[in-house]
Amino acid sequence: GENVEQHPSTLSVQEGDSAVIKCTYSDSASNYFPWYKQELGKRPQLIIDIRSNVGEKKDQRIAVTLNKTAKHFSLHITETQPEDSAVYFCAASRAAGGTSYGKLTFGQGTILTVHP
Amino acid sequence: EPEVTQTPSHQVTQMGQEVILRCVPISNHLYFYWYRQILGQKVEFLVSFYNNEISEKSEIFDDQFSVERPDGSNFTLKIRSTKLEDSAMYFCAQARGGWSYEQYFGPGTRLTVT
Predict the structure, then answer these.
(1) Is B43 at the interface with chain A, CB within 8 A?
(2) Do A101 and B102 touch (CB under 8 A)?
(3) DSSP structure class, residue A15
(4) Across the beta sheet with A4-7, what order do the strands follow?
(5) CA-to-CA separations, A85 to A38, A88, A112, A115, in angstroms, rounded
(6) In 3D, which of B19, B29, B41 has the Cα closest to residue B106?
(7) What angle do CA B107, A50, B90 make, to 5 degrees?
(8) What angle do CA B66, B95, A42 make, to 5 degrees?
(9) What is the mean pLDDT of each run of 10 residues along chain B (114 residues)?
(10) Is B96 helix (H, G, I), strand (E, B) or coil?
(11) Which residue in chain B has the smallest CA separation from A5?
(12) CB under 8 Å, gap of 24 or more: what pairs does B59-64 form?
């Protein structure tokens, strides 16, 4: 089955700096890679995703890149703010549809702390 | 973002008791999932449910777990005989399917087994 590795486990940056979180996956059939942000005691919240037919996607201060050949994808947050502090999870799946039912396999999570 | 709702928000039960966790489906969302997150750990897949039957399950989802849509509406996860190690947050998630890949999570039910 799919295995997702995420690094680093903790990341501490100063406000205004950039943050990068990296994930690798094992199943070459995975075609959907979402990123979730989880604040303490809250639900995982989808912040950005990328499909396997795209190499990069950007939404304001966050971007995700995908290298299918190397089976890795990364989350980039620019101009970090204290409210970006949270746990970030990457995930991989074969998207729901046809013979695939879309289960997400998550990485171990990265605790991001943005210092004012 | 579509709003997924779950009840109860917190459930405390004694070891060996049965619990039922509920999730209210979003219209037009065809795929349902249950995930578990033990405190401080990653989110783990339990089971997916499509077309009123289980489509995929993990090794965690053993005989003490079951899922159903008893009234064709709410989507439930039942744990027949709870163990201490079942203490976790249980999240329901839903996806529309087709060209829409996004999975949206409910607020979770915190299950505490004593």
Answers:
(1) yes
(2) no
(3) T
(4) A4-7, A19-25, A72-77, A62-67, A56-59
(5) 9, 9, 5, 9
(6) B29
(7) 20
(8) 80
(9) 88 97 85 94 93 89 90 88 96 84 93 98
(10) strand
(11) B42
(12) B60/B36
Question: Chain B: residue nearest A49 by CA?
Answer: B102
Report DSSP letters for A59-78, one per residue. Answer: ETTEEEEEETTTTEEEEEE-
For residue A57, the one-letter residue type is: K
Query: A8 with A110: CB under 8 angstroms?
Result: yes
Phi (first) and psi of residue A25, to 5 degrees: -130, 165
Q: How far apart are CA B108 and CA B37, in angstroms?
A: 10
> What SS3 state is found at A51?
strand
Per-residue pLDDT reduced to its tens digit, B34-47: 999 999 999 999 99
pLDDT at B20: 96
The tokens for A32 are: 């959907």
